[in-house]
Amino acid sequence: MENVIIIGTGPAGYTAAIYTARADLSPLILTGSQPGGQLTTTTDVENFPGFPDGIMGPELMQKMQQQAEKFGARVQNSIEVTSVDKNADGSFTVNAKDVFGSNEHVWQTKTVIIASGASARYLGLPGEMDLVKSGAGLTACATCDGAFYRDVPVCVIGGGDSAAEEASFLTKFASKVYLIHRRDELRASKIMATRALANEKIEPVWNSTICEYLLDDNGRIRAVMLENTVDGTKSELELEGVFMAIGHNPNSKFLSEELVDKDESGYLVQIPGKTATKTPGIYAAGDIADTVYRQGITAAGQGCAAALEAEHYIASL
Does pTM surpass 0.85? Predict the structure, then answer.
């Protein structure tokens, strides 16, 4: 019987592992298909405290893992959880399988910390994930990466509040921000849309979507090919950065609603003021429950809180 199983390995999962490991709970971490989470797709991280010169996203996640393992956390790589079931005695059964194989795994545990995060939506065009991983001009986080695009033109894809907010934020750095939307008006709230469209640095590109990324000789984005959603015509738009703002998909499909409450988008619902879910012994931390901030440091804070709550729960048993 495990004390704690942590599902996911971003800042939330690794921080939860550090705290539970230091409490001698010997946590087991299941990494999923993307060890380290979304930060492993980010190049320079400049806004995580303690690194005044910045740090590469994969390196930050590696250091967090090493710190957790130093205190006794155990990591199972490339394990994808398929379901979590509650047992009659209040413990849990975690069912999983190999990401790159057919082996199945079953663990029993007293508590579960869900830190499986959320995945940014992209357009599904060829080579997208390569551009994201290489930091070659495609990202889904203006707060994380906006400062790398000073005095150059960029674009934001989307039409909701997030897209309007990201576009407004990027005007602090970029010389021009194209707000590309597949319709002829934003679906953002009136105040957000008005604020974005009133900014002289933001230029809306209506009834359009990206159909191709155009790269320079170094493999970085130099322009995008736009396709008009009304008449199908195509045109080239020169820019150096593309910011996706078409939403996120929470990685919560493996959890039943008998066990945890979810909102209409699939994000886990926490008990107000806590990381606990409606089922005692199950906690949610990071982007799997955070629809507002979605930052590495806030995820780490929730991972800490979930670990402390799990520790207290185990002590109460």
Answer: no
Strands (E), the chain: 2-7, 28-30, 44-45, 55-56, 74-76, 79-86, 92-98, 104-114, 118-120, 138-139, 153-157, 176-180, 202-205, 208-215, 221-228, 234-238, 241-244, 248-250, 282-284
Tokens of 14: 């690794």
Q: Round to the nearest angstrom and report the end-to-end CA distance of the chain.
A: 14
Instruction: Spell out a b/e string for 102-137, using b for 16 or more CB atoms within 10 Å of the CB, else e.
Output: eeeeebebbbbbbbbbbbbebeeeeeeeebbeebbb
pLDDT tens string 174-233: 999 999 999 999 999 899 899 999 999 999 999 999 999 999 999 999 999 999 999 999
Question: How many Å apart are CA 52 and CA 75, to the nearest integer?
Answer: 29
1-58 pLDDT tens trace: 999 999 999 999 999 999 999 999 999 999 987 776 777 666 678 889 999 998 988 8
Q: What is the 3-state secondary structure (H, E, C) of 109-124?
A: EEEEEECCCEEECCCC
Total number of domains in the chain: 2
Measured CA to CA, the distance from residue 240 to residue 228 in angstroms comes to: 21
* 85 phi and psi angles, rounded to 5 deg: -120, 145
Same domain, 271 and 188: no
CA neighbor of 112 nearest in space, from 76, 134, 141, 83: 83
Distance in angstroms (rounded) separating the CA atoms of residues 255 and 80 = 12
Domain limit, last residue, from 244, 267, 294: 244
Helix (H) or strand (E) holding 99: none
Alpha-carbon gap, residue 297 to 200, rounded angstroms: 32
**Same-domain check for residues 56 and 140:** no
Domain housing 277: 2-119+248-316
As a whole number of angstroms, the distance between CA 52 and CA 49 comes to 7
Closest CA to 241 of 170, 166, 154: 154
**What residues act catalytically?**
141, 144-145
Supply 273's token pair. Answer: 């003021």
